[in-house]
Amino acid sequence: MFEGRQKERGANERKLERKEKTHFFFPFFSLPKPSTHKKSALLGPVVDVHGGGADLMHPHHDNEIAQCQASAEVDPSCSCCGGGDGKGSSALASASASASASASASGVEHSGGPVVDFVRYWCHYGFVNVDAQKMSKSLGNFFTIRDARSRYSAPALRFFLLGTHYRSPLNFSHEALENAADRLFYVYSTLADVEEELEALKGKAEAEAEAAAASSSSPDAPPPPSSKKDKAPPVSTSKELAEADADLDLGKGPGGEALAGALGSLADDVGTPGAVAALSAPLKQANDLLKTKAGKKAPRRAYALASISAGIQAVLELLGLEPRPDAKASLEELKDAALLRCGVSREDVARGIEERAAARAAKDWAAADAVRERFERKGIAISDTVGGETTWRPVARAVGGGEE
User: Fold this and answer.
1) Quick check: helix, strand or coil at residue 220?
2) Which parts of the chain sit beneath pLDDT 70?
3) Which stretches of 292-390 are DSSP H helices?
4) Which of 295, 384, 394 is nearest to 339 (CA)?
5) Residue pLDDT, tens place only, 305-355
6) Pairing relationship of beta strands 119-125 and 47-53 according to DSSP bridges
7) How many other β-carbons are positioned within 10 Å of the β-carbon of residue 16?
8) For the whole model, what pTM was predicted?
9) CA-CA distance, 322 to 316, in Å (whole number)?
């Protein structure tokens, strides 16, 4: 269509074309840059998704619709218009008058049915603000993706971006990114704890099964003690795990419900904030099952944990946030990025833990608290586990806290 024959084009058509050295879509061709209405010749009569900033809605995209719709009208029910398949995905159709003329010449009757829109889905994204101000070089608040990646891991940055709907303005701030990284660490940490507990339950179930098999094979083995209450035999852990996997795609169980909620949000104009929010309920339930007395004694605990694990991983995969290769490795990646932002090393943290331990041993509680608070201002939280082990994790810093 673009053969460089400028003389054969009319004056009005040449006005719609901006002449440049390279082709708009194919830079290796030394041809004029096609105008907006020429895009339909290259992309086809119908475009599935067309993106752009919110500022392009009018007049840029309004003009594009007017030009492309006029030059590529498609009747999905008419073969002469290139529809036929009902999806408007055939070759470029001419304007309706030309289509009718060619159809008459070929002996095909033009149906004159409804015309397919040039674009099926328009996706206009919001602007990026920095600390509630418009991002611009003149204000000195301009940044690049490379700048953000130098301070935050790719999953944390992605998690932050997914927290705002693409059509809404995105307010970029280091505080918001700190909170996003902290929240993602919580997601991966909970998932790692659930997977560790599931492995322990599997090992316990296997050991019990082996003991039961050995006991049944021994003729002198005493019969199992009878319960005073008539209760149905408990479902084995292996059966609960298998049931959880089967229920995931059916939308059953805590994991299946989370996955169904995330899919529903994504199907509604790519509602990524809703998909992220779908993780909240299973994460809370997982921590209850892992850390509270009632949760540790809850019936069908293995089923709930397995369902939560599968559901969280499925939602994370939908969002492009699945742990790679596993949750523990992803946690280490977030830790490395936090240390880089804080300007400290793992050796510095280890020395701080030793300093705090020495102060606690000397019962100098003020000095021990001072060490903990010093690292916390930088974004490192030092804490003690129930078993007496001292660990650390990155946390969101206050505005200005520990900034370079």
Assistant:
1) coil
2) 1-44, 72-116, 216-235, 398-404
3) 293-296, 301-318, 327-342, 346-361, 365-378
4) 394
5) 999 999 999 999 999 999 988 999 999 999 999 999 999 999 999 999 999
6) parallel
7) 13
8) 0.75
9) 5
